[in-house]
Amino acid sequence: MDNNTIFIEKLRSSGLRPTKQRIKICKLLFNRKKTFHFTISDIFKILKKQTYEKISLATIYNTVHSFKEKGYLKEISVDREKSYFDTNTSNHHHFLDVNTNELIDLKNEDVHNIKIKKRIPGKKINSIEVLVKIENSN
Protein backbone atom coordinates (compact mmCIF):
# COMPACT_ATOMS: atom_id res chain seq x y z
CA MET A 1 0.00 0.00 0.00
CA ASP A 2 2.95 2.32 -0.62
CA ASN A 3 1.34 3.98 -3.62
CA ASN A 4 0.45 7.64 -2.94
CA THR A 5 -2.47 7.38 -5.38
CA ILE A 6 -4.52 5.44 -2.81
CA PHE A 7 -3.92 8.11 -0.19
CA ILE A 8 -4.57 10.98 -2.60
CA GLU A 9 -7.91 9.39 -3.59
CA LYS A 10 -8.88 8.86 0.06
CA LEU A 11 -8.14 12.52 0.78
CA ARG A 12 -10.03 13.77 -2.27
CA SER A 13 -13.04 11.57 -1.52
CA SER A 14 -13.04 13.12 1.97
CA GLY A 15 -13.19 16.61 0.47
CA LEU A 16 -9.55 17.41 1.22
CA ARG A 17 -6.83 18.76 -1.02
CA PRO A 18 -3.93 16.25 -0.98
CA THR A 19 -1.09 18.32 0.48
CA LYS A 20 2.22 16.75 1.57
CA GLN A 21 1.16 17.06 5.21
CA ARG A 22 -2.23 15.40 4.66
CA ILE A 23 -0.66 12.56 2.66
CA LYS A 24 1.68 11.93 5.62
CA ILE A 25 -1.31 11.86 7.99
CA CYS A 26 -3.19 9.52 5.65
CA LYS A 27 -0.22 7.15 5.36
CA LEU A 28 0.22 7.08 9.12
CA LEU A 29 -3.43 6.16 9.61
CA PHE A 30 -4.05 3.73 6.77
CA ASN A 31 -0.72 2.25 5.65
CA ARG A 32 -0.86 -0.62 8.15
CA LYS A 33 -2.18 -4.15 8.42
CA LYS A 34 -3.64 -3.96 11.94
CA THR A 35 -6.33 -1.76 13.42
CA PHE A 36 -4.98 1.54 14.71
CA HIS A 37 -6.46 3.31 17.75
CA PHE A 38 -5.29 6.87 18.37
CA THR A 39 -6.09 10.31 19.67
CA ILE A 40 -5.40 13.52 17.76
CA SER A 41 -2.62 14.20 20.27
CA ASP A 42 -1.07 10.77 19.52
CA ILE A 43 -0.94 11.59 15.79
CA PHE A 44 0.60 15.00 16.49
CA LYS A 45 3.36 13.43 18.64
CA ILE A 46 4.10 10.63 16.15
CA LEU A 47 4.32 13.01 13.19
CA LYS A 48 6.48 15.42 15.17
CA LYS A 49 9.00 12.61 15.75
CA GLN A 50 8.79 11.24 12.19
CA THR A 51 9.05 14.38 10.14
CA TYR A 52 11.06 17.57 10.12
CA GLU A 53 8.16 19.43 8.53
CA LYS A 54 5.71 21.19 10.76
CA ILE A 55 2.20 19.80 10.64
CA SER A 56 -0.25 21.88 12.63
CA LEU A 57 -2.63 20.39 15.16
CA ALA A 58 -5.47 22.04 13.21
CA THR A 59 -4.47 20.21 10.01
CA ILE A 60 -4.43 16.88 11.86
CA TYR A 61 -7.76 17.63 13.56
CA ASN A 62 -9.48 18.66 10.32
CA THR A 63 -8.06 15.71 8.37
CA VAL A 64 -9.06 13.14 11.00
CA HIS A 65 -12.56 14.59 11.31
CA SER A 66 -13.01 14.65 7.52
CA PHE A 67 -12.03 10.95 7.41
CA LYS A 68 -14.50 10.25 10.22
CA GLU A 69 -17.33 12.07 8.42
CA LYS A 70 -16.58 10.08 5.25
CA GLY A 71 -16.71 6.81 7.24
CA TYR A 72 -13.01 5.91 7.06
CA LEU A 73 -12.62 6.27 10.84
CA LYS A 74 -14.81 5.65 13.86
CA GLU A 75 -14.76 7.91 16.92
CA ILE A 76 -14.94 6.36 20.39
CA SER A 77 -15.65 8.92 23.11
CA VAL A 78 -14.35 7.69 26.45
CA ASP A 79 -15.33 10.78 28.42
CA ARG A 80 -16.17 14.43 27.86
CA GLU A 81 -12.62 15.41 27.12
CA LYS A 82 -11.12 12.42 25.33
CA SER A 83 -11.94 10.65 22.09
CA TYR A 84 -10.09 7.88 20.35
CA PHE A 85 -10.32 7.15 16.66
CA ASP A 86 -10.30 3.67 15.17
CA THR A 87 -9.39 2.57 11.64
CA ASN A 88 -11.70 -0.45 12.10
CA THR A 89 -15.11 1.05 11.33
CA SER A 90 -17.13 -2.14 11.89
CA ASN A 91 -19.34 -2.47 14.97
CA HIS A 92 -17.17 -3.95 17.70
CA HIS A 93 -16.34 -3.51 21.38
CA HIS A 94 -13.28 -2.22 23.24
CA PHE A 95 -11.32 -2.49 26.44
CA LEU A 96 -9.85 0.79 27.66
CA ASP A 97 -6.81 0.28 29.88
CA VAL A 98 -7.05 3.27 32.22
CA ASN A 99 -3.44 2.78 33.39
CA THR A 100 -1.90 3.00 29.91
CA ASN A 101 -4.71 4.80 28.03
CA GLU A 102 -4.62 2.00 25.45
CA LEU A 103 -7.76 1.08 23.53
CA ILE A 104 -7.90 -2.64 22.72
CA ASP A 105 -10.33 -4.37 20.36
CA LEU A 106 -12.80 -6.79 21.92
CA LYS A 107 -14.52 -9.08 19.43
CA ASN A 108 -18.31 -9.28 19.31
CA GLU A 109 -18.16 -12.99 20.13
CA ASP A 110 -16.31 -12.14 23.37
CA VAL A 111 -19.38 -10.26 24.65
CA HIS A 112 -22.39 -12.43 25.32
CA ASN A 113 -26.11 -11.56 25.30
CA ILE A 114 -26.52 -7.84 25.81
CA LYS A 115 -30.17 -7.13 26.60
CA ILE A 116 -31.53 -3.62 26.39
CA LYS A 117 -34.91 -3.43 28.12
CA LYS A 118 -35.64 0.26 27.66
CA ARG A 119 -37.12 1.40 24.37
CA ILE A 120 -37.42 4.94 23.06
CA PRO A 121 -40.62 5.56 21.08
CA GLY A 122 -39.95 6.08 17.37
CA LYS A 123 -36.37 4.83 17.66
CA LYS A 124 -34.68 1.51 16.98
CA ILE A 125 -31.28 0.27 18.08
CA ASN A 126 -28.75 0.78 15.31
CA SER A 127 -25.77 -0.87 17.05
CA ILE A 128 -24.46 -1.72 20.48
CA GLU A 129 -20.83 -1.09 21.25
CA VAL A 130 -19.43 -1.80 24.71
CA LEU A 131 -16.49 0.05 26.27
CA VAL A 132 -15.03 -1.92 29.18
CA LYS A 133 -12.61 0.05 31.36
CA ILE A 134 -9.85 -2.07 32.87
CA GLU A 135 -7.01 -1.31 35.27
CA ASN A 136 -4.10 -3.03 36.98
CA SER A 137 -5.28 -5.54 39.57
CA ASN A 138 -2.89 -4.66 42.44
Summary?
This protein has 138 residues and is α+β, with helices and mostly antiparallel strands. The protein has helices spanning 4-13, 20-30, 40-50, 57-70, and strands at residues 37-38, 74-79, 82-86, 93-97, 102-106, 131-134. The strands form two sheets. A three-stranded antiparallel β-sheet has the order 1-3-2. A three-stranded mixed β-sheet has the order 5-4-6, with no helix packed on it.
Describe this structure in words.
16% of the residues are buried. 33% of the residues lie in helices and 20% in strands. With 138 residues, it is of the alpha+beta class. The protein has two domains: 4-85, Winged helix-like DNA-binding domain superfamily/Winged helix DNA-binding domain (Arc Repressor Mutant, subunit A, Orthogonal Bundle), CATH 1.10.10.10; 90-134, no CATH class. It has four helices and six strands; from the N terminus they run ααβααβββββ. The chain has helices at residues 4-13, 20-30, 40-50, 57-70; strands at 37-38, 74-79, 82-86, 93-97, 102-106, 131-134. The model has no long low-confidence stretch (mean pLDDT 91). Helix 1 (4-13) crosses helix 2, helix 2 (20-30) crosses helix 4 and helix 3 (40-50) packs across helix 4 (57-70). The radius of gyration is 17 Å and the shape is globular. A hairpin with a 4-residue loop joins strand 4 (93-97) and strand 5. The strands form two sheets. It has a three-stranded antiparallel sheet with strand order 1-3-2. Strands 5-4-6 form a three-stranded mixed sheet, with no helix packed on it.
